[in-house]
Amino acid sequence: RPPVSATTLLIVVGVGACGDAPSLASHSRCSSTMSDRTRLTQIPISGRVVDWKGAYGWIEPQCRIEHPDITNHQGHIFAHSEDVIPKWKNLTVGSLVEFHLYYDGQGLGAEDTVARKVLRLTIPWETAQQVFGEAGEQIPNFERRFQVSMRAYQWVLIDGSPGGLPFILFEIWGSPRSIVPAVVEITSDGEKCIAQMLVPESRLWKIDLQALRYRCPGTELSHDATLTDPLRCHSLSFEGGREECSKALHALVAQICE
After folding, report:
1. Taking the C-alpha atoms of 78, 84, 90 and 94 in order, what is their torsion angle to the nearest 10 degrees?
2. Contact, 111 vs 104, CB < 8 A?
3. Angle at the Cα of 164 from the Cα atoms of 161 and 167, rounded to 5 degrees
4. What is the pTM for the complete model shown?
5. What is the mean pLDDT of residues 69-75?
6. How many C-beta neighbours within 10 Å does residue 66 have?
7. Residue 72 above 90 pLDDT?
């Protein structure tokens, strides 16, 4: 199940008036004051938390950054819980995050850091090719447009030949304000939306069907698991107008995404 690679974003940042910047400090470094900082990004970038100890840690950016200090600390970006949304929230090693990049005279840091959420859905092959192209060549443009990261999974047989299933599994990563419009765009035809979402079996207990149906009456949850690989999932379908499905998807994110 080869994943579709996410968009690569190139950030070119000059030192400007800062002159020769010192290296990132050791683990004793504290969060800098806002007045010391220069924000270097206009839109959030993404990364993965690779280390977290107490109130601070390090993020590995998932894009290429050109800055004199990027080679410090193995290319990782300093993060402090004071700069996480909500404030003082500890981040989990391995989690995906979005953040703005800043420079404070000590090195590069992350601010307005938000843990990314994920929604999973199945899409018929025909629909996927219409939206993303025969070989998925339009996925990078879609990611940039909605500021999300996507992974696509195709089932194959042991010998590597196609599994023959009529759909493809997509994971869409990002903030709720990004992933919900992305899902609605993929699953809508005009004003009508039909979204076949997947809910991991381990999170079924969090589902409040009454709350979802209040927002989108055409909501159905399968009794049995519809997928067992790469993880056991039940199907949760939304059928209605774009606005109805959007409201239900926002509620779903709040229910099952930590």
Report:
1. -60
2. no
3. 125
4. 0.69
5. 88
6. 10
7. no
- pLDDT for res 19: 30
10 Å Cβ neighbour count for 98? 23
**Residue 150's beta-bridge partner residues?**
172
What would the two tokens of residue 235 be? 């199907």
Task: Dump the DSSP string for 104-128.
Answer: -SS-EEEEEEEE-EEEEEEEEHHHH
Q: Give SS3 for 228.
A: coil
Best CA proximity match to 120, nearest among 242, 5, 229: 229
Q: State how far the Cα of 205 lies from the Cα of 199, in Å rounded to an integer.
A: 10
Q: Which two tokens stand for residue 159?
A: 């010998």
Q: Give φ, ψ of 33 to 5 degrees.
A: -75, 155
What average pLDDT does the chain have?
A: 84
What is the C-alpha end-to-end distance of the chain, expressed in Å?
Answer: 26
DSSP letter string, 192-204: EEEEEEEEEGGGG
**Angle (nearest 5°) at CA 172 between 201 and 216:** 65
3-class secondary-structure state, position 243:
helix
Cβ neighbours, 10 Å, residue 163: 9
**Distance between CA atoms of 135 and 141, rounded to whole angstroms?**
13
Q: Strands of the chain (E only): list them.
A: 10-12, 38-39, 45-53, 56-61, 64-66, 77-80, 96-103, 108-115, 117-124, 149-153, 167-174, 188-189, 192-200, 218-227, 233-241
Give, for 178, the enclosing helix (H) or strand (E): helix 176-187
Contact 171, 96 (CB under 8 A): no
